[in-house]
Amino acid sequence: MHGVRGAQAQQRLAERFEEHRGQLKAVAYRMLGSLAEAEDAVQEAWLRLDRTGGDRVDNLGAWLTTVTGRICLDLLRSRTARREEPLAEGFDTFVPDPVVRALPRTDPEQEALHTDSVGIALLVVLETLEPAERLAFVLHDMFAVPFDDIARVVERSPAATRQLASRARRRVRDATPAAEPDLGRQRRAVEAFLAASRAGDFEALVSVLHPDVVLRADAGVLARGAAASKVVRGARTVATGAFHFRHLAGLARVVLVNGAVGTVAVSGTGVQSVTYVTVADGLITGLYILSDPERLADLDLSALEA
């Protein structure tokens, strides 16, 4: 009988945990920029809750959020310790895991508010922060966790924790590019870019790019050679790179990538690339390209099947 009651209690606890899973994954994804690591962090949060039984937890959502934050902080510190090169050396070509969905047929504004719609551009900036700064910014600015609670995770005073978030906020504000919120305008810019690429019209391609456009690509096919170790900047330079790989434009489908209009290129052998695009004033300001075959193979693209 005791075993039955124990199993029932664990089932109830698991059901309560599932109510918070979406937010916990959102926290972990913003902290880690990796969907697989985010899933692992959320699973570890469940294991810790299961071990405690949750009997003395007054606010389960708050408890799970801070526990997930602590797990992510440990993962970030471990990642930093393992990194052989300074972050600045590899940051330029870092592209976080994208969340890809089909363009909505109705109510696109609501789709853009999806839990996972944090922009790739912001995730790239977050990757440059120190782990404690990232935690303070994500938990406080994105999830309204009080500084007193965050302070216990980072083992600093609330005042020092507030300063961590303030420094992170300034860096995010200064480094995150301006973005067009209207999906219709985003789509027009992306489709103009694809049309110019497919037509082989170099000047039309340049005309849809902001003069200071930046292209970042991972270590896949698009990032090999000269672009593998530096950012590609400027409309004509980026257009030259895009022109060289214009065959992918013929495979590209316009989709939502992290809540913004982007593309996924699919051939008979599978997904070739996913591109997140930032747009401002009708011009493309940033291209973030994931083309690593191993990482692409791990992406969940089931949302495109419909």
Helices and strands, with pairings:
Blueprint: H1 2-32, H2 35-52, H3 60-82, H4 87-91, E1 100-101, H5 108-111, H6 120-126, H7 131-143, H8 147-154, H9 158-175, H10 183-199, H11 202-207, E2 209-217, E3 232-233, H12 235-244, E4 252-257, E5 260-267, E6 270-280, E7 283-290, H13 293-298
Parallel strand pairs: 2-7
Antiparallel strand pairs: 1-4, 2-3, 4-5, 5-6, 6-7
Helix pairs in contact: 1-2, 1-3, 2-3, 3-7, 3-8, 7-8, 7-9, 8-9
Shape: globular
> Could you say which structural class the secondary elements and strand pairing correspond to?
alpha+beta
Strand order of the largest sheet: 1-4-5-6-7-2-3
Largest sheet, in brief, is: 7 strands, mixed
Helix content: 40-55%
Q: What value does the average pLDDT take?
A: 85
Integer-rounded radius of gyration: 21 Å
Name the poorly predicted regions. 84-91, 108-113, 221-229
Q: What is the count of β-strands?
A: 7
Distance between the termini: 47 Å
Strand content: 15-25%
Number of helices: 13
Q: Helix and strand string, N-terminal first? A: HHHHEHHHHHHHEEHEEEEH
